[in-house]
Give the backbone structure.
Amino acid sequence: MMDRIKYVVIENTFSGEEIFLFSPCINHREFANRIGGQVVSAGFVGHSSKTRCGLYPYGESVSLKLSSRPTEDQRLLDSMFKKEY
């Protein structure tokens, strides 16, 4: 079984909210501490043929005590993997 990809969304003063995808081997809190900034959501990324980018956010981070935000985090994923047509 393939491990789930983790993510955090961090708000910083320069670029607003940014989503970061990372290895399931790293703890959400540990990754967020390395990046710095205000963490606003966290969870996992799954595959879906129903979204624009083929991915969707879900779940929560136990170490950060934060959940995913389906609408806002999906928008960030879509913009990260936007396709030019």
